[in-house]
Specification:
CATH class: Alpha Beta
Strand order of the largest sheet: 5-4-3-2-1-9-8
Order of helices and strands: HEHHEHHEHHEHEEEEHEH
Number of strands: 9
Helix content: 25-40%
Number of domains: 1
CATH topology: TIM Barrel
Distance between the termini: 22 Å
Shape: globular
């Protein structure tokens, strides 16, 4: 296999991702905070890092933002869209520094489209209509935002996970911005990936599959097709040698805490049970289930990231933490 910038995924056991998105992420206690500054100030970094360390995961994917406030300041963004959308506290940079101290890898999440942002942000970027295509002029502006983050994070940032890469992405523009400050940074682009039965490379030059998956077990997936999910041999065509196999799988909450995952279009094999107040969703699978999928992907030189729910204050589910720690001991 040609050396991928994401080869550290192959060498590690597994990764963890959380969707911390203000104001969407529910709190564990008290009222939901909608202001990005108040929410980032309230985030308990020590608690979060303690939980992450206990999972024994080898990398972390953390959301800078997703259709909401950004948990990291960005002057370029402010100049284009106006102030108030990015936090004063650089929570993302603080997390990246703590992850590095643990000897782990850090990956940042952003969506490719301004179309999911609030209307006033769309106006600042000159977004004319809601479309999956990203106009060239907006790509120039948005990749400048990404380049500022890339430059500031430097070698603390080991990778990017770009969502919503459906059409019109300029590979050279995005990859150049994504690798400012670290030429070895691993980058991926997501178009639905494994959850739509595809292992195709979305953007030429990406380093690993986004691997978005909705369920770990066999089920009818979108468009009425049925196949065994998360087995690399079932997904054709194979990715090119320099693009690492990778799966991203939610294992308690469906991406975010208290988000139901029994929509008709998902053909869910698992009934959604709302968690009790102040509690996280229970793990959906057994440790043996998780071990099987990790070994399947490692057998083809790939990696697996488990998405877990998070509270607005920064805590995650203790049962899920214990389960991942048990998985790490078996690998």
């Amino acid at each position: 296999m040609a050396q991928s910038r994401a080869s550290w995924m192959r060498k590690g056991k597994f990764g963890v991702m959380v969707h911390w998105c203000v104001p969407k992420t529910p709190p564990q206690f008290g009222k939901r905070i909608t202001d990005i500054n108040e929410a980032t100030d309230r985030f308990d970094l020590d608690r979060f890092i303690k939980d992450f360390r206990r999972t024994k995961a080898d990398w972390l994917i953390f959301t800078i933002g997703q259709g909401s406030g950004f948990a990291s300041p960005n002057q370029t963004f402010d100049q284009i869209a106006g102030s108030g959308h990015c936090s004063r506290r650089d929570l993302v940079l603080e997390i990246a520094k703590r992850v590095e101290k643990l000897g782990k890898r850090f990956v940042a999440y952003l969506h490719c489209s301004i179309g999911i942002q609030p209307e006033w942000v769309q106006k600042g970027f000159g977004w004319k209509k809601r479309t999956r295509d990203v106009p060239a002029a907006i790509q120039q502006q948005y990749t400048a935002v990404i380049a500022e983050y890339s430059r500031r994070y430097g070698t603390l940032l080991d990778g990017w996970w770009f969502d919503g890469a459906f059409a019109g992405i300029d590979p050279g523009l995005w990859l150049a911005a994504a690798r400012v400050g670290n030429a070895r940074r691993a980058v991926t682009f997501n178009d639905g990936s494994l959850c739509i039965g595809s292992s195709k490379v979305v953007v030429p030059g990406q380093d690993y599959l986004a691997g978005e998956s909705e369920f770990l077990i066999t089920s009818k997936i979108r468009y009425g097709r049925e196949k065994e999910l998360l087995t690399p041999i079932t997904h054709v065509p194979q990715p090119p040698p320099a693009c690492l196999w990778h799966a991203l799988i939610p294992i308690d909450a469906m991406w975010e805490h208290r988000i139901p995952f029994n929509y008709d279009w998902q053909k869910s094999p698992i009934p959604w049970v709302a968690p009790k107040p102040h509690q996280m969703e229970d793990p959906l699978y057994t440790v043996a289930d998780l071990e099987t999928v990790v070994r399947d992907f490692k057998a083809v030189g790939g990696g697996v990231t488990f998405n877990i729910g998070i509270f607005q204050e920064g805590g995650v589910g203790p049962k899920t933490v214990d389960q991942l720690a048990s998985l790490a001991r078996r690998l």
